[in-house]
Amino acid sequence: MIWFDRDARRWQWDAARIRTEGYTDNIAELMRVRLYALPAETQAALQRAACIGGTIDGATLAVACERDVAPALRPALEQHLLVETVQPEGRTYRFPHDRVHEAAYALLPEPERTRVHVEIGRRMLAGTAPVELARNVFEILSQLDRGAALIKSPEERERMAELHLLAGTRAQASTAYASALRYFATGAALLAAEPEVCRPDLAFALDLHRAECELLTSAFDAAEQRLTDLARTLEYLRRVGIDWPTHPTDDEVRREHDRIWQQLGPRAIEELADLPAMTAPQHRATMGVLALAQSPVLFTDEKLHSLVICRMVNLSLEHGNSDGSAIGYAWLGAFLRPRFDNPGAGMRFGQVGLDLVEKRGLLRWKARVYLDFGMMITPWSKHLRGGVELVRRCFDAANETGDLLFASYSCNCVVTLLLAVGDPLAVVQREAEVGLAFVRKARFGPAIDFLLVQRQLIRSLRGMTRKLGSFDDEDFAEERFEQHLEADPHVLATCRYWIRKLAARFLAGDHAEAVAAGARARPLRWAIAAFPEVFEYVFYSALACAAYHDVAPEDERPRLRDELAAHHAQLAGWAEHCPDNFRDRAELTGAELARIRGEADQAAQLYEQAIRTARIHGFVQVEAIAYEAAARFHRERGRALVADAYVREAHVRYVRWGADGKARQLCRAHPELDLHPAGAAPVALRSEQLDRLSVIKASQTISSIMDKDLLSRTLLRFVLEEGGARRVVLVTSRDGEIEIAAEARVDQPSVPADDARVPRSLLSYVLRTQEPVLLDAVADAGRFASDPYFADTHPRSVLCLPVRLRADAVALLYLENDLIPGTFNPDRLLALELLAAQAAISLENARLLERERTGRIEAEAADRRGQLLGEATALLSQTLDARGVLDALARLFARSFVDWAVIDLQDHGALVRVACAHRDPDKEPLVRELATRYAVHPRSPAWQVLQTGKVFESPGVTEDQLRTYCVDEDHVQLVRRLGARSGLFVPLCARDAMIGVLTLVSMTLSRFPRADIELAVDLGRRMALAIDNARLLEETRRALHLRDEFLRIASHELRTPLASLRLSAQGLLRAAERNRAVSPEILDRTLTRVLGNTARLEQLTSELLDVTRIEQGRLQLNPIEIALDAIVRDAVEHIEADLAAAGCSVSIECAAAVVGRWDRSRLDEVVTNLLTNAAKFGAGRPIEIRIDHLGGAARLIVTDHGIGIDPARRPYVFDRFERAVPSSRYGGLGLGLYIARSIVVAHGGTIAVDSELGAGSTFTVTLPCASPEPGAEQPVSN
Question: The domain containing residue 147 runs over which residues?
Answer without folding.
Answer: 27-194
